[in-house]
# Entry
Amino acid sequence: MPTYTLAQVAEHKTTASCWVIIRNKVYDVTDFLFDHPGGPQVILDFGGQDATAAYVPIHPSDALDKNIAPEKHLGELDGASRRELSKAKNDKVKSKDELRVEVAVKSRPLLSRIINVQDMEETAKKLLPYKAMAYYASAADDSITHIENARAFSRFFFHPRVMRAVSGCDTSTTMLGHKTSIPVYISGSALARLGHPLGEINLTRGAYKTGIIQMVSTNASLSYGQIASARGSPDQPIFFQLYKHKNDETAAKRIREVEALGYKAIFLTVDALVPSNRELDTRAPHYLEDFEKGVNPQHNSQAKEGETEILGTAGGLIINNDVDMTWERTIPWIRGTTKLPIVIKGIQCVADAVLAAEAGCEGIVLSNHGGRQLDYSLPPVELLYKVRKERPDVFSKTEVYIDGGIRRGTDVLKALCLGAKMVGLGRAFLYAQSAYGEAGVVHLARILQREIKFGMESLGVRSIDQLVPEMVERVDWQPAVGARL
Amino acid sequence: MPTYTLAQVAEHKTTASCWVIIRNKVYDVTDFLFDHPGGPQVILDFGGQDATAAYVPIHPSDALDKNIAPEKHLGELDGASRRELSKAKNDKVKSKDELRVEVAVKSRPLLSRIINVQDMEETAKKLLPYKAMAYYASAADDSITHIENARAFSRFFFHPRVMRAVSGCDTSTTMLGHKTSIPVYISGSALARLGHPLGEINLTRGAYKTGIIQMVSTNASLSYGQIASARGSPDQPIFFQLYKHKNDETAAKRIREVEALGYKAIFLTVDALVPSNRELDTRAPHYLEDFEKGVNPQHNSQAKEGETEILGTAGGLIINNDVDMTWERTIPWIRGTTKLPIVIKGIQCVADAVLAAEAGCEGIVLSNHGGRQLDYSLPPVELLYKVRKERPDVFSKTEVYIDGGIRRGTDVLKALCLGAKMVGLGRAFLYAQSAYGEAGVVHLARILQREIKFGMESLGVRSIDQLVPEMVERVDWQPAVGARL
Amino acid sequence: MPTYTLAQVAEHKTTASCWVIIRNKVYDVTDFLFDHPGGPQVILDFGGQDATAAYVPIHPSDALDKNIAPEKHLGELDGASRRELSKAKNDKVKSKDELRVEVAVKSRPLLSRIINVQDMEETAKKLLPYKAMAYYASAADDSITHIENARAFSRFFFHPRVMRAVSGCDTSTTMLGHKTSIPVYISGSALARLGHPLGEINLTRGAYKTGIIQMVSTNASLSYGQIASARGSPDQPIFFQLYKHKNDETAAKRIREVEALGYKAIFLTVDALVPSNRELDTRAPHYLEDFEKGVNPQHNSQAKEGETEILGTAGGLIINNDVDMTWERTIPWIRGTTKLPIVIKGIQCVADAVLAAEAGCEGIVLSNHGGRQLDYSLPPVELLYKVRKERPDVFSKTEVYIDGGIRRGTDVLKALCLGAKMVGLGRAFLYAQSAYGEAGVVHLARILQREIKFGMESLGVRSIDQLVPEMVERVDWQPAVGARL
Amino acid sequence: MPTYTLAQVAEHKTTASCWVIIRNKVYDVTDFLFDHPGGPQVILDFGGQDATAAYVPIHPSDALDKNIAPEKHLGELDGASRRELSKAKNDKVKSKDELRVEVAVKSRPLLSRIINVQDMEETAKKLLPYKAMAYYASAADDSITHIENARAFSRFFFHPRVMRAVSGCDTSTTMLGHKTSIPVYISGSALARLGHPLGEINLTRGAYKTGIIQMVSTNASLSYGQIASARGSPDQPIFFQLYKHKNDETAAKRIREVEALGYKAIFLTVDALVPSNRELDTRAPHYLEDFEKGVNPQHNSQAKEGETEILGTAGGLIINNDVDMTWERTIPWIRGTTKLPIVIKGIQCVADAVLAAEAGCEGIVLSNHGGRQLDYSLPPVELLYKVRKERPDVFSKTEVYIDGGIRRGTDVLKALCLGAKMVGLGRAFLYAQSAYGEAGVVHLARILQREIKFGMESLGVRSIDQLVPEMVERVDWQPAVGARL
# Structure
């Protein structure tokens, strides 16, 4: 295998010829520049240089093999160059944010002090690098939908029943025929390794230990195979969240790959076809720049104004999606590609819930992508309530799931009373694995199980199927902000 | 009676053999470990040691006699051991929280400066040991129901009538046939001695002086007999709040005991069968630990993670309840056990109000346990309003009481206009006796009487029976937070 | 005239014999003790002493003549005693609150900087002695009704009409046949001299200059005659707000007195028969005591607990009212006593508005006493809206006024669109005269006139009678708190 | 041309003879005093003096020629006087506010950091002189309508459609037949030069570069001709916002002038006939006076009280308007004056929308003048919703526009779904040109285009005409204040 010096690599930094170094290997990425989901500029910024630190945490290990033709794997750095890189890495002064994180990690609370979902979120936000926090936490525009997703649950109150036998209360149910210990699944979300070196594997292992189901994102930071291999047994069900590539063949290849790996369902995501406006994420580089400088967050207007619009971490992930999917074309195509059950993720109005059910989809997720795409999309629990009122037949035609804004066992139970079969949490599990790895995931699932079981007993039910619409009421007032006394 | 040394006792600290010292007496509690309502670990933590300080404030004086067989009352400490314990107690450095309370007690306001219910609560919270405050004040999950219980009253406005003769306005009424000076009773709540050495006796004596009725909790910190003996006269009515033990015979024994002691009614509690999530209570040990250390409330993650989940003071009180009670089985059983009137406490929906009335119960309490059990249970005044609208026949079949969120005489009057016969306050009286003992209880009742009388005169009524539904309106807006100008 | 020494007076300080000194004169008030509206203790606190400073600001000049029989006007202090009192007065150290007011008065803003009603209130509150501020500003219980009175207006929006000729827009109208320059009157409120030495006279003169009408309170701090004499001309209309004494003859005497003095209407107040709970007022003595001491507002609990409940300034004013008035008895009685038009002030529900109209009253005031009596009485503009919807015939049978919560010309116009003939402001004029005397009253009236005229032009109307219900809409949302940008 | 000395000019400072100096020229403005829109006092304050600094930023360059007869252009200052003025100007100590602005300008953020409309507003407010900020930002009374204009949008949520082909999504549409790149126009607002020396020209050039349409205010700070000349091509459409002078001939002259200059439509403003109460603007001189003094904002009450009521910058602009316009008289008159399409700006109720449509107007603007005139005028998007529900025929009879409260692309799309053809922004573009000149205007338009395009794709539409009422729902709750996470 040929070797290169840093100087040699440094000459290739344009669209005409662009090389990068990753883990001491040299790649010619010229042909890939315009196929990169994040656009060419993201790569060109590292043209002719070592890109390892930026690349590794957000790409699965098989990404280079999948995307860069073998002949473009040019070779390795020579020894002197390796030593030079290594020295540079050691000499690098830690950023203020890195130092902040180091301090935060030292005072991380004992896991037993985390007693609810919000504790987990708050703890993780302190421990995460700012950019990772910004990517995980950000939502669209003014975060109205993000905030209302959670707040909507607070308008639903219970009609608990008393004097009913509840001993032996059982929280288990099924999702697409697979057993789950509680009616909660881990919703697919990108880039778990931003928060923890083991990334998605923490979720897989935690799911196994607690008997719940994980959905894996197209944008996972580990390869689909690595995640599948982390399962506790071959029976452990995992699902796949699909961003359909605009090229049907590329898309089909991805589906066949995960089917072969043992994934049990395809969750086709239809609410995130184009990059959205997530301002916390967009502003993160500005924030860090100012934080390092220790100066006023505003620049001297004489400074050179850059041309490129900065899109944040999120920007690069939603590219090359098929923006022309239709019920007529896409559902038959996917049926022809796989035998796996198909679930539409991102249903945001009653009419589309009906269309999905009529199209024979095995399930739908009432979801607005956690408030990260179109602001002022209805909160899922409000949509669920509308489906219940206007088209209750949908519940008998397809499994209905919701995600977005769930923080408590009571939220889960409200959704189930209204007809949801399962409830997904995304960010919460990301935060749990970021802060405590696999143990955090297990702990979070157990908190939810405790809350769900208590709620069922208090409602007077012994099993999930006894949760009925008569047990919830949408009140006509808005509770004040809760205090966790 | 045999005597023991501290060293001898210290050898018995496991489930195989567990001894404890209480008031210089030695008990073998091995057989009782798993019957303890709070679970065995709570006792094992004191295995082989003196448990007096932890035990006394939260157990009635007859608890040892009732629960520990006579032959397990082993004997006494010898003189040297007593002196050693006594010296250890004297040498014990006061905790920061104890020192804080000492300062607070010195600046306790004159009772005459307490002019409303909220003054009493705020004052008591400053005077109480943190753990007691946390137990009294805590509510479920995010305290939504706790907060909304009170806030719901603010959506009910009056239609006061003018030009009606109101001289000689009389606030008295009856509850289960017993006369009461105002339509307010002291609702049963556990562990009054956490707040004041005389505990429930303050309530009994204050109730006597002001002509109101006390309900005594199954979890009272004095024995049912001690409380009954504190009555001002044998005619003073007291009621009993019952947690039904899962063992029918144990439960029946308890009912027969209080009937013999002269209690006049059984309030069967049906909304608190299993321990709930009260986070202020749960976090109290963490809070105090950090407060003593004077350090950051977060631990170094290297610290040993404990295995036991800490449940707070509340955890131990709701155990061994009968979680399989039903209308069909339990009501006839209790009728067969006692001649006392039966009231169901913890009705949370219209349907169950109807069932209770049809089951022939003499009364029902619309209550969600002060927001301490299932969060998002409807505020009782909202439920009362629903019963009034949907099933007004309930009011003619059974006496309807409510508790939860009452802070003002106007709250009481709103409930009575809607059909409630009486209104219960729990925490408020706990706070009053904690801060000022019996005088506080008397003062609180007089504040309420003054407010109720003024409200009746201002509504244009001379007697309780003139309060009618037409005098209240549920408005469609939410008042802003009130200011006590 | 006999003279007395301080020592002689000092011997008479009990209910058996009680003398007081007022303006160097000696009165035997023994017989009057239990007729005093504020109760005997208020006088006994000054028994045998000089009561001038406490007495003068809150009693009209004819009060001694009216209430103390001539033979009880015992005589005067001798010269030495007068000098002693005078010296004591001079030597008296100013209280902290007096010093605070002195500073505040020095930085009083120019009147031209007061550009709206709220400016006036905020300015006056800084300038007033604490006790006066507390009496003026206080409201019942938690001030819900006080706050909602104003907030309710914010739910009414306009349907302004454009392309209508509005030149020569005229804001004048009539009240009980008397011309007024704007549809706003000065509502009766007690004790104007707490805020300014000229007291109610400021209101009378300001009303004259701006062509508006003043209602005088039974509890005015000047005599009814002094106020009548301050009129700019004999034609200037003034109205009388009546608290009916429980003794019919005493009440009739008062009515005949004001009729003879030229008052033009009787506003019988029916919403304030008994003293209410105004906590700011009640706590004022505590506040001042602590402020002077410069210590923690909490007392050592060892301090002697006083027996008397302190009621604040308000307490003494609502005593001896007739609490047994009825439509059947009282209206005919008052008709038999006077020829003046009768207006019922304090109507708080639709049913009573109808009864008053049917009883032939010339007017009604939808009022809850500015939120100072029963908390949770409906905001008057909400009640007005209900009358408009449920019983619009009332508007054709009697003149309907409202008071409570008016802050802007737009508030006035909303009330007029809904059917009110006039709108009253009480506190606002008290604040204006307190801060700037007569000039403040004139300025306030002109601010309102400017706002009303602008509002009429913007609604497309030229005269008051063109304001119609179609021009307002009650919206189903609650505006956020306004910002005065 | 004759020359004058400062001393000579200084003699003419009364209504009898009033001269002023502007750009070293001397004008006799005696005859014009009472024709001045802001009233005579504004000029008299500069009588006999140099008025250049106050005059130039708020008057178009042709104002002197239009308003002062040629013979009153008396001549020029002599050389010595010019030097004296110039020296005085140089010697003038900068005000605190000028110094504050100088600092603020130095830390102006890079334009690329401005990522939404609110960023632009916040940035501009820091950079603007206080008086200019106060004039731009101020709203009527308590700003209820100003605040609710924006807040109302938050009650409208989307029903996004998925699985619809959206590639090639096109944001362009037409307004009165003129092409526009996005459904947003620049609404006319006065005095752009308060914020930037190039004033309205920044808007004209920015509009050209981004393909949007500008409406020019009657009170523009540049002449209508200067603005027309700044167009990028003769085809660039510009519209004219008309305040109709009470004198028909003066009004007609103005209309004919702009028609001749190539303006393409007349927007007759009917909601701002008389000066309103804008308190931020009114208080600006007080604020600055206190800021300079560095003292307490309150004056010693001994200070001389001025007689003149200060009206702020806004006061002078709304004078001499025709307050007697009617549908019957004014529409035919304007039709007889011009061939341009007529749009009524300031429709505030459904009834007037219908009247305008029936009167044959080519368009209407549902507007309340940005909340600057009558407080409690309905938010335009609420009015739009009412028109849609009650009189949908209006949309087929005339083009309907709205302005007021638009901050996001989602706001624009909600209005279009409900039937609006275009949406206007006023303040936002003023802020943009104030902070960054033409580049700011371009940047703002591009932000809106990005947000609108993303919103359309997310709603599942490819073109503006696919936006339909079914895509929005007015929810019955009020979202919490948004956080821009």
The radius of gyration of chain D is 24 Å.
